[in-house]
Amino acid sequence: MTDYTWILAKNAVMSFWESPGKSDEWYTPKHVFDALGCEFDLDVASPAAGGTYVPAKNYLTDRALEKEWTGFVWMNPPFGGRNGLAPWLDRFTGHDNGIALVPDRTSAPWFQDTWRKTDAVLFTRKLKFLRPDGTEGKSPSNGTALFACGATAKAALERACVVGLGILAIPTTSEREHV
What we know:
Layout: H1 3-13, H2 30-36, E1 40-43, E2 56-59, E3 73-75, H3 86-95, E4 98-103, H4 109-115, E5 120-124, E6 144-149, H5 151-162, E7 166-169
């Protein structure tokens, strides 16, 4: 296999969210927030155009990693490239109060690092995200996980589990490295 063929094969199996040139404008469907049953103080990765179902009092639409985060946060960050989530998740776990939606990539180093810093994780089925025009996208290549930091977030994931949004997992005491 030539280097070029290997690159093509590798790119063919990369998931949708890792594909270069794809849009990061995919919004969380309303049923996720209905299942969580909570309100957020801040959506830290909200699109400038609005149009989301995030039940938040305040929204950051640009340069969120450079701005102050306050209260109970919702984070559905731009999935971007391979390690594009790492700075978002570092900031999220440092804030330690909220819920983050990420691809279910349990083998990825960023996932394992974040797992050790959270109070709970809800593994969902494949969510069909919404486009900016409100239409539903196709089923993604992988499932989704919701990370919880803090008691309020953990309680929201427990509620969502009870109503069938996903499977709840709790890191053991020996695994947890709260910041």
